[in-house]
Amino acid sequence: MPEPARLRVVAVVEETGESRSLVFEAPPGWSYRPGQFLTLRIPSDRTGSVARSYSLSSSPHVDDALQVTVKRAGYGSNWLCDNVVAGSEVDVLPPSGAFVPSSLDNDVLLLAAGSGITPVMSIAKSVLAAGTGRIALIYANQHQDAVIFAEELREMVARHPDRLLVVHWLESVQGLPTAAALRELSRPFADRECFVCGPGGFMDTAEEALRELDVPSARTHVERFVSLKRNPFERKKRSTSSGPTGGSAETAPEPGSGSADATVELDLDGKHHKLRWPRQKRLLDLLLENGVAAPFSCREGACSACACRIERGEVKMLQNSVLEQEDLDDGIILACQSLPITDEIRIAYE
Fold it and tell me: Would the keyword Phosphoprotein be found if you checked this record's keyword annotation (predicted)?
């Protein structure tokens, strides 16, 4: 797994009554793309520690420090809000995630609710600072006092009135946003690359609105976070004959596939690889064991950092909490959860 670093907190910013931004001193050699996230190690009396992922609200094109914004929503976020102060040190995994724009010169539509503004803010600041794209942001909150980055957004609009449009939706005034309402607000910008982040109900509604506007899945990006079942900071060595749960799906070959190893081919970072793929080994494990620097983060099928595309052959995924049906139909798989079915497989990293 990527090596964690112990980062020092240089500032804690109170954004709202329920949210804080933690500003970390960036370690040498780390870089990130707008929209990515950090995974933090949080102490726990019951388990020693838990791991939680938080989106970066800073921009690599604007900010020298790394900043994540945390809203109270459970044990991990509550602990961070209550205990982390300037001078605190936190174990952090390097930036990861695929919720990133294809180009900062493209026009984008951003749909966010609550703390879902955090990766969206990173994207917006980056586009305005280092690109030429125009931005439309539709931002839903329960009430005015819950709007994270309210003042910063006003300042950004004042500096870029011709490139940034912000539409606020307040549930205290307008009720819950409906698919019909989001559809009409989004209609003038439906030809853009679209990014959706927020609570599950909001994202489902926003996705429905974009589907009704016939926005292709290839132009729709959705960021979903789920609690990790396994702590990526733990150093326990994994067995090569079974996965972390030792479930039956990993201890028996796929029916009809035979017991002989499969073969997988891929090109990554300008190098061609052809590897024997044991039936009981996950693809990501195989690549890492053979020195292939494949991207990954959670190893649980709960993020899209290890996503790749099947160009030939077929695999079985053991777990998937992030890919939509459109992604699966397009051949996208999670390397950390994939076992071979056919004898010959080719994958591509994009």
Answer: no
